[in-house]
Amino acid sequence: MSEVTRKVYYNSCADEQVYGMIREVMPAGFELVALEKDDDEERKRRLADARVAIVAATPLTAPLLEAAEKLELVCHQGVGYQDTVAVDVLRQRGIPLALTPEGTTTPVAEMTILLILAVYRRLTFTDPELRQGRWHINSQRPVSRNLSGRVVGYVGMGRIGQATARIAHAFGAAGIYCDVAETLGKEDELTIGLRRGSFDEVIEQADIVSLHIPSGPENKHMINAGVLARMKPGAVLVNTARGSLVDEAALIEALKSGHLGGAGLDVYEAEPPSTDNPLLAMPNVALTPHIAGGTRDAYQTKMRAIFDNVTRFYAGEPLNNPVVL
Known about the structure:
Layout: E1 6-10, H1 16-25, E2 30-33, H2 40-47, E3 52-55, H3 62-67, E4 73-76, H4 87-93, E5 97-98, H5 105-120, H6 123-131, E6 151-155, H7 159-170, E7 174-178, H8 186-191, E8 194-196, H9 199-205, E9 208-211, H10 225-230, E10 236-239, H11 248-257, E11 262-265, E12 285-287, H12 296-314
Parallel strand pairs: 1-2, 1-3, 3-4, 4-5, 6-7, 6-9, 7-8, 9-10, 10-11, 11-12
Helix pairs in contact: 5-7
């Protein structure tokens, strides 16, 4: 590594504690360029001298990349780059993009189970009610359910889907999944109580449908009014993947009608959702602000992996987890 200090730009606006976690693992020879306010004009100013950009939830758009004249490498703090990086611009300029699958699997799988349990046990209703002095010791018995004995349907069976299925199996839940790839062998399926089926079978047979696929034009609103209507009465939808996978208006109608028993959402079509979004007022919906992969443990793992990749890049070594642009 040369003695030249290379500037590493972080595209999301965070607080000093988060920036401190990045600096803790940053090797010598690099300087963090952090935002003080969530403003695209400041992003453009900060990007001007950056050699490396780290992208999380805030998109690195084409206008931002136009200001990054010295940019040599982009690292995505996760794997869902399709809606957060202007890949056409990177391709045109020959700037490589590397993903960071490290650290995400466990927290997202845990959050998926947390959302299922929160919906099944009506946590988002009973917690604020108790804080207001209302003691619902009996009223929730008719609507609360066990995860044990339920069928969880997984749309996508990659790393996160598999980790979620293992946890759900430990709770006593069975599983059915669909995936475009052959991700599991028969022995693995048996070990975690899974069977492979079609998308239609997953939708129609599962008590809980959980999404674990990337976003893309081909997947936009794959969960639409027609699909929701084919889910079992009282079924629950959980989405810790990407908001664009679900037609949110159709989901709201399915919840209002009572056809769906509830939903657990970490992602939304518009982030953050508007304050008048009907989902915010529904007692059978558990909501979190796109934080499924956002634990301290996951963040530290990701940052170490990112700077390992940055170091590899400047040492002339192949990148880990590169994207073919």
